[in-house]
Amino acid sequence: MELSLATRAVGEHTVLEVGGEVDVYTAPRLRERLLELIDGGARHVVVDLGRVDFLDSTGLGVLVGALKRLRSAGGSFALVCDKEPLLKIFRITALDQVFPLHPTVDAAIAADSTGA
Amino acid sequence: MATVKLSFSPAPVHVRTARLVGVAVARRAGVREDLLDEVRLAIGEACTRAVALHRQYGLADPVYVEMSDGGGYTVRVVDRAPIEAGLGLAALGPDELAKESLSEDALTTGVGFALLAGFVEDLQVRPVDDGVGTEVRMSWPAGRA
User: Fold this and answer.
1) Preferred mutation among A22, A32, A53, A56 to probe B, highest tally of B CBs within 10 A
2) Which residues, other chains included, contact A86 with Cβ-Cβ below 8 Å and sequence gap of 6+?
3) Spatial distance between the Cα atoms of A50 and B130, rounded to a whole number of angstroms
4) Chain A: residue nearest B44 by CA?
5) What are the extents of the domains in chain A?
6) What ipTM, to 2 d.p.?
7) Which residues form the Histidine kinase/HSP90-like ATPase domain (chain B) (predicted)?
8) I need a labelling partner for A7 at 20 to 30 A (CA). Which of A42, B14, B61, B66 fits?
9) How many CB atoms lie within 10 A of CB B104?
């Protein structure tokens, strides 16, 4: 399935819903969209991976890039993911200790708002 | 023993095709259904690595993939890059991954190897027998030969 990207605002958070396959071919489009959001002033970004059915190292690299960029801008970055195959990818790469991972968008925003 | 061979020009768009073929052949070979996600990811990582190396060295040669189901399901992904690749790359810890100084390319390479090593029990990375390049060889148990 092709990559799909949809953005919505929830309070001061920007939620980017990603669907389909994030791989070496599609990851540049995800990178561009994240850069557009950050350059456009978004400082609290939540990426919802709920409809992602494939994610590779290139996609993970893009997500880490966005995390670092937002951190250095004084912002925050969180991921929403509750699918076991994807969670396993984060555990194997130790990226589960780098990203704030939440099961729902509401949980991600609540945790970010309380500074958790 | 059934063998499927595939070679593709080193462009990112073809990696998905290699994944789809690799999983179709794995299913046909009788690889357990719950392993197919890992097979898909591992073939994708190996092909992504090969494509990245060919682009890095300006090589137009195709990336070669061979899938065979003799006594298990084995996939070989062969690149032609003039480097000495191995599995010596240490896994990056969370502190290193989050470091500002780590480039996205370096991170992607490290994470790609971590995924290969994590998802493929039987993994070998070695120089090709003929000429220049590296072979990534991955095997999974398969139900029927």
Assistant:
1) A56
2) A49, A52, A55
3) 45
4) A56
5) 4-113
6) 0.91
7) 8-140
8) B14
9) 16
In CATH, B3-140 is 3.90.1150.200: no
Q: Provide the CB-side half-sphere exposure for B87 (13 A, CA).
A: 16
Determine contact, residues B26/B140, Cβ cutoff 8 Å: yes
Q: Are B108 and A61 in contact (CB under 8 A)?
A: yes
Q: What's the CATH fold of domain A4-113?
A: Transcription Regulator spoIIAA (3.30.750)
Does B87 have pLDDT greater than 60? no
Q: How far apart are CA B31 and CA A20, in angstroms?
A: 24
Residue B21 main-chain phi, psi, to 5 deg: -65, -45
Phi then psi dihedrals of residue B97, to 5 deg? -60, -35
Band of the pLDDT at B143, cuts 50, 70, 90?
confident
CB contact under 8 A, B12 and A25: yes
H, E, C per residue of B3-35? EEEEEECCCCHHHHHHHHHHHHHHHHHCCCHHH
Domain ranges of chain B: 3-140
| Interchain contact, A21 vs B114, CB within 8 Å | no
**Digits of tens for pLDDT over chain A (116 positions)?**
689 999 999 999 999 999 999 999 999 999 999 999 999 999 999 999 999 999 999 999 999 999 999 999 999 999 999 999 999 999 999 999 999 999 999 999 999 876 54
